[in-house]
Amino acid sequence: MTNPIDTNGTYYVPRSQTDKTTGFLLATLASGAIMKGLSVTGDIFHKELIKEQSNNNTYREYLNKAFDLSGLAGKGVNIIPAQYERVTFPIEAAGKNACYIPKAKKVVLNTDKISHAGFHELGHAMNDLMSKYGVKYLAKSRRAGYIIAGLMEYFAIFSRTKPKDSKRNLVDIIEDNCGKIAFAALLPVIAEEGIASYRGVKLAKASGLPEHLIKNLKKLYTKALATYAGRAVLGGLAVGASRIIMDHYTRPRKVELDEFFSF
Ligand SMILES: [Zn+2]
User: What is the tens place of the pLDDT at every residue in 142-177?
Assistant: First the structure.
Protein backbone atom coordinates (compact mmCIF):
# COMPACT_ATOMS: atom_id res chain seq x y z
CA MET A 1 0.00 0.00 0.00
CA THR A 2 1.16 3.58 -0.79
CA ASN A 3 1.99 5.87 2.09
CA PRO A 4 -1.10 7.70 3.30
CA ILE A 5 -1.54 11.47 3.08
CA ASP A 6 -2.12 12.92 6.53
CA THR A 7 -4.62 15.81 6.63
CA ASN A 8 -5.22 16.96 10.21
CA GLY A 9 -5.19 13.45 11.52
CA THR A 10 -7.35 11.98 8.70
CA TYR A 11 -5.56 9.60 6.37
CA TYR A 12 -5.94 9.31 2.61
CA VAL A 13 -4.33 7.08 0.00
CA PRO A 14 -3.66 8.25 -3.56
CA ARG A 15 -5.60 6.43 -6.27
CA SER A 16 -4.06 3.84 -8.54
CA GLN A 17 -3.29 4.47 -12.20
CA THR A 18 -6.04 1.97 -13.09
CA ASP A 19 -8.62 4.04 -11.19
CA LYS A 20 -7.44 7.20 -12.93
CA THR A 21 -7.63 5.57 -16.37
CA THR A 22 -11.10 4.19 -15.63
CA GLY A 23 -12.24 7.63 -14.54
CA PHE A 24 -10.86 9.24 -17.68
CA LEU A 25 -12.54 6.69 -19.97
CA LEU A 26 -15.90 7.00 -18.22
CA ALA A 27 -15.71 10.80 -18.18
CA THR A 28 -14.97 10.86 -21.91
CA LEU A 29 -17.81 8.44 -22.65
CA ALA A 30 -20.32 10.38 -20.53
CA SER A 31 -19.33 13.69 -22.07
CA GLY A 32 -19.59 12.25 -25.60
CA ALA A 33 -23.02 10.78 -24.87
CA ILE A 34 -24.32 14.10 -23.54
CA MET A 35 -22.95 16.10 -26.48
CA LYS A 36 -24.70 13.76 -28.92
CA GLY A 37 -27.92 15.47 -27.89
CA LEU A 38 -26.68 18.48 -29.82
CA SER A 39 -27.22 16.78 -33.15
CA VAL A 40 -30.97 16.79 -32.39
CA THR A 41 -31.29 20.60 -32.28
CA GLY A 42 -28.81 20.88 -35.17
CA ASP A 43 -30.92 18.56 -37.34
CA ILE A 44 -34.14 20.42 -36.56
CA PHE A 45 -32.50 23.67 -37.62
CA HIS A 46 -31.02 22.25 -40.82
CA LYS A 47 -34.33 20.75 -41.91
CA GLU A 48 -35.95 24.15 -41.53
CA LEU A 49 -33.09 25.79 -43.43
CA ILE A 50 -33.47 23.37 -46.34
CA LYS A 51 -37.27 23.61 -46.31
CA GLU A 52 -37.07 27.36 -46.84
CA GLN A 53 -34.83 26.95 -49.90
CA SER A 54 -37.99 26.82 -52.03
CA ASN A 55 -38.51 30.51 -51.22
CA ASN A 56 -34.89 31.46 -51.87
CA ASN A 57 -35.53 33.74 -54.84
CA THR A 58 -37.94 35.90 -52.85
CA TYR A 59 -35.61 35.98 -49.86
CA ARG A 60 -32.69 36.99 -52.09
CA GLU A 61 -34.60 39.85 -53.63
CA TYR A 62 -35.50 41.28 -50.22
CA LEU A 63 -32.10 40.52 -48.74
CA ASN A 64 -30.55 42.88 -51.30
CA LYS A 65 -33.08 45.55 -50.34
CA ALA A 66 -32.36 44.92 -46.66
CA PHE A 67 -28.63 45.26 -47.30
CA ASP A 68 -29.16 48.63 -49.03
CA LEU A 69 -31.37 49.82 -46.16
CA SER A 70 -28.96 48.67 -43.47
CA GLY A 71 -26.24 51.16 -44.35
CA LEU A 72 -23.68 48.36 -43.97
CA ALA A 73 -22.23 49.00 -47.43
CA GLY A 74 -21.12 52.40 -46.16
CA LYS A 75 -19.26 50.61 -43.37
CA GLY A 76 -17.33 48.53 -45.91
CA VAL A 77 -19.39 45.32 -45.61
CA ASN A 78 -19.77 43.03 -48.62
CA ILE A 79 -21.96 39.99 -49.23
CA ILE A 80 -19.83 37.23 -50.71
CA PRO A 81 -21.76 34.46 -52.47
CA ALA A 82 -20.36 31.05 -51.53
CA GLN A 83 -21.04 27.46 -52.44
CA TYR A 84 -23.11 25.86 -49.70
CA GLU A 85 -21.20 22.59 -49.92
CA ARG A 86 -17.71 24.01 -50.04
CA VAL A 87 -17.46 26.72 -47.47
CA THR A 88 -15.66 25.89 -44.27
CA PHE A 89 -16.62 28.37 -41.67
CA PRO A 90 -14.98 29.77 -38.59
CA ILE A 91 -16.44 28.57 -35.34
CA GLU A 92 -18.64 31.69 -35.13
CA ALA A 93 -20.60 30.60 -38.18
CA ALA A 94 -24.31 30.25 -37.72
CA GLY A 95 -24.98 26.54 -37.89
CA LYS A 96 -22.31 25.86 -40.54
CA ASN A 97 -24.31 27.49 -43.25
CA ALA A 98 -23.49 31.16 -43.48
CA CYS A 99 -21.35 33.53 -41.52
CA TYR A 100 -20.18 37.04 -40.95
CA ILE A 101 -16.41 37.46 -40.80
CA PRO A 102 -15.72 40.57 -38.67
CA LYS A 103 -12.08 41.05 -39.69
CA ALA A 104 -12.89 40.96 -43.39
CA LYS A 105 -16.30 42.67 -42.94
CA LYS A 106 -17.81 39.98 -45.13
CA VAL A 107 -21.12 38.19 -45.00
CA VAL A 108 -20.49 34.83 -46.64
CA LEU A 109 -23.50 32.85 -47.79
CA ASN A 110 -24.86 30.95 -50.72
CA THR A 111 -27.41 33.35 -52.15
CA ASP A 112 -28.52 30.69 -54.66
CA LYS A 113 -29.88 28.54 -51.84
CA ILE A 114 -30.00 30.06 -48.38
CA SER A 115 -30.55 33.80 -48.71
CA HIS A 116 -32.92 33.43 -45.72
CA ALA A 117 -29.85 33.00 -43.50
CA GLY A 118 -28.54 36.32 -44.77
CA PHE A 119 -30.75 38.65 -42.72
CA HIS A 120 -29.37 37.16 -39.52
CA GLU A 121 -25.81 37.60 -40.79
CA LEU A 122 -26.54 41.24 -41.57
CA GLY A 123 -27.64 41.44 -37.94
CA HIS A 124 -24.21 40.16 -36.90
CA ALA A 125 -22.54 42.79 -39.06
CA MET A 126 -24.69 45.48 -37.42
CA ASN A 127 -23.80 44.16 -33.97
CA ASP A 128 -20.15 44.43 -34.90
CA LEU A 129 -20.12 47.77 -36.68
CA MET A 130 -23.21 49.74 -35.72
CA SER A 131 -23.68 49.00 -32.02
CA LYS A 132 -23.26 50.77 -28.78
CA TYR A 133 -20.57 49.49 -26.45
CA GLY A 134 -22.60 46.67 -24.82
CA VAL A 135 -23.56 44.76 -27.95
CA LYS A 136 -20.20 45.49 -29.56
CA TYR A 137 -18.58 43.97 -26.51
CA LEU A 138 -20.77 40.86 -26.83
CA ALA A 139 -19.75 40.48 -30.48
CA LYS A 140 -16.08 40.82 -29.60
CA SER A 141 -16.23 38.50 -26.58
CA ARG A 142 -17.54 35.49 -28.54
CA ARG A 143 -14.10 34.08 -29.22
CA ALA A 144 -13.12 34.44 -25.57
CA GLY A 145 -16.32 32.63 -24.60
CA TYR A 146 -15.48 29.68 -26.82
CA ILE A 147 -11.90 29.58 -25.56
CA ILE A 148 -13.01 29.58 -21.91
CA ALA A 149 -15.68 26.93 -22.55
CA GLY A 150 -13.06 24.79 -24.33
CA LEU A 151 -10.57 25.27 -21.50
CA MET A 152 -13.13 23.99 -19.01
CA GLU A 153 -13.14 20.65 -20.86
CA TYR A 154 -9.53 20.30 -19.73
CA PHE A 155 -10.26 21.41 -16.18
CA ALA A 156 -12.93 18.70 -16.12
CA ILE A 157 -10.52 15.85 -16.76
CA PHE A 158 -7.63 16.73 -14.46
CA SER A 159 -6.96 14.14 -11.78
CA ARG A 160 -7.64 15.43 -8.25
CA THR A 161 -4.55 14.90 -6.16
CA LYS A 162 -5.91 16.60 -3.05
CA PRO A 163 -8.39 15.13 -0.60
CA LYS A 164 -11.87 16.63 -0.73
CA ASP A 165 -11.65 18.59 2.51
CA SER A 166 -8.19 20.08 1.96
CA LYS A 167 -7.65 23.81 1.43
CA ARG A 168 -8.69 24.98 -2.03
CA ASN A 169 -6.68 27.26 -4.30
CA LEU A 170 -7.83 29.04 -7.47
CA VAL A 171 -7.36 25.95 -9.67
CA ASP A 172 -9.49 23.88 -7.26
CA ILE A 173 -12.22 26.50 -7.34
CA ILE A 174 -12.19 26.53 -11.16
CA GLU A 175 -12.26 22.72 -11.22
CA ASP A 176 -15.16 22.63 -8.77
CA ASN A 177 -17.17 25.01 -10.93
CA CYS A 178 -15.97 24.12 -14.43
CA GLY A 179 -19.43 23.02 -15.65
CA LYS A 180 -21.04 26.27 -14.57
CA ILE A 181 -18.17 28.31 -16.04
CA ALA A 182 -18.40 26.44 -19.38
CA PHE A 183 -22.12 27.23 -19.53
CA ALA A 184 -21.75 30.86 -18.49
CA ALA A 185 -18.91 31.47 -20.96
CA LEU A 186 -21.29 30.82 -23.86
CA LEU A 187 -24.05 33.13 -22.64
CA PRO A 188 -22.59 36.15 -24.49
CA VAL A 189 -22.65 34.07 -27.68
CA ILE A 190 -26.35 33.23 -27.20
CA ALA A 191 -27.17 36.86 -26.43
CA GLU A 192 -25.32 38.11 -29.50
CA GLU A 193 -27.00 35.48 -31.70
CA GLY A 194 -30.40 36.54 -30.39
CA ILE A 195 -29.72 40.22 -31.05
CA ALA A 196 -28.42 39.42 -34.57
CA SER A 197 -31.68 37.58 -35.32
CA TYR A 198 -33.78 40.38 -33.86
CA ARG A 199 -32.00 42.92 -36.05
CA GLY A 200 -32.19 40.58 -39.07
CA VAL A 201 -35.97 40.21 -38.74
CA LYS A 202 -36.35 43.96 -38.26
CA LEU A 203 -34.38 44.56 -41.49
CA ALA A 204 -36.45 41.95 -43.31
CA LYS A 205 -39.64 43.73 -42.22
CA ALA A 206 -38.25 47.11 -43.31
CA SER A 207 -37.35 45.65 -46.71
CA GLY A 208 -40.98 44.65 -47.23
CA LEU A 209 -40.48 40.87 -47.13
CA PRO A 210 -44.00 39.31 -47.28
CA GLU A 211 -45.56 38.61 -43.88
CA HIS A 212 -45.69 34.81 -44.26
CA LEU A 213 -41.95 34.72 -44.95
CA ILE A 214 -41.26 36.94 -41.93
CA LYS A 215 -43.08 34.30 -39.91
CA ASN A 216 -40.94 31.52 -41.42
CA LEU A 217 -37.80 33.55 -40.83
CA LYS A 218 -38.64 33.93 -37.14
CA LYS A 219 -39.25 30.18 -36.89
CA LEU A 220 -35.90 29.41 -38.54
CA TYR A 221 -34.00 31.85 -36.35
CA THR A 222 -35.61 30.51 -33.18
CA LYS A 223 -34.36 27.05 -34.10
CA ALA A 224 -30.90 28.41 -34.81
CA LEU A 225 -30.86 30.03 -31.38
CA ALA A 226 -31.94 26.75 -29.81
CA THR A 227 -28.82 25.07 -31.19
CA TYR A 228 -26.65 27.70 -29.50
CA ALA A 229 -28.56 27.44 -26.23
CA GLY A 230 -28.35 23.63 -26.46
CA ARG A 231 -24.64 23.84 -26.96
CA ALA A 232 -24.20 25.93 -23.82
CA VAL A 233 -26.49 23.76 -21.69
CA LEU A 234 -25.18 20.39 -22.90
CA GLY A 235 -21.60 21.64 -22.89
CA GLY A 236 -21.98 22.71 -19.25
CA LEU A 237 -23.58 19.38 -18.35
CA ALA A 238 -20.89 17.37 -20.15
CA VAL A 239 -18.10 19.26 -18.41
CA GLY A 240 -19.86 18.95 -15.04
CA ALA A 241 -20.43 15.21 -15.48
CA SER A 242 -16.78 14.65 -16.44
CA ARG A 243 -15.69 16.51 -13.33
CA ILE A 244 -17.94 14.44 -11.04
CA ILE A 245 -16.66 11.19 -12.55
CA MET A 246 -13.02 12.26 -12.38
CA ASP A 247 -13.45 13.35 -8.76
CA HIS A 248 -14.97 9.98 -7.93
CA TYR A 249 -12.13 8.00 -9.49
CA THR A 250 -9.11 10.18 -8.80
CA ARG A 251 -9.56 11.85 -5.42
CA PRO A 252 -7.38 10.29 -2.74
CA ARG A 253 -9.48 7.77 -0.87
CA LYS A 254 -10.17 8.31 2.83
CA VAL A 255 -9.00 5.39 4.97
CA GLU A 256 -9.67 4.50 8.56
CA LEU A 257 -6.52 4.06 10.60
CA ASP A 258 -7.26 0.43 11.51
CA GLU A 259 -7.88 -0.31 7.80
CA PHE A 260 -4.48 1.11 6.96
CA PHE A 261 -2.59 -0.78 9.63
CA SER A 262 -4.47 -4.06 9.22
CA PHE A 263 -2.08 -5.69 6.77
ZN1 LIG B 1 -25.31 33.79 -35.98
Answer: 889 999 999 999 999 999 988 888 889 999 999 999
Give the count of alpha carbons within 13 A of 69, CB side only: 20
Cα(first)–Cα(last) distance of the chain, in Å?
9
* Residues less than 5 Å from ion ligand 1, measured at CB: 94, 193
> What percent of the residues of the chain are helix, what percent strand, and what percent coil, each to the nearest 5?
65, 10, 25
Q: How many degrees, rounded to 5, is the angle at CA 186 between CA 182 and CA 192?
A: 175
How many angstroms does the Cα of residue 89 sit away from the middle of ligand 1?
A: 12
The rounded Å distance from CA 123 to ligand 1 centre is: 8
Q: Minimal CA–CA distance to 195: which of 146, 109, 132?
A: 132
4, 69, 172, 176, 177 from 169: Cα distances, Å: 22, 54, 5, 11, 13
The residue that leads in pLDDT, 43 or 151, is: 151
Closest CA to 77 of 116, 111, 127, 37: 127
- Per domain, the residue ranges of the chain are 5-58+133-260
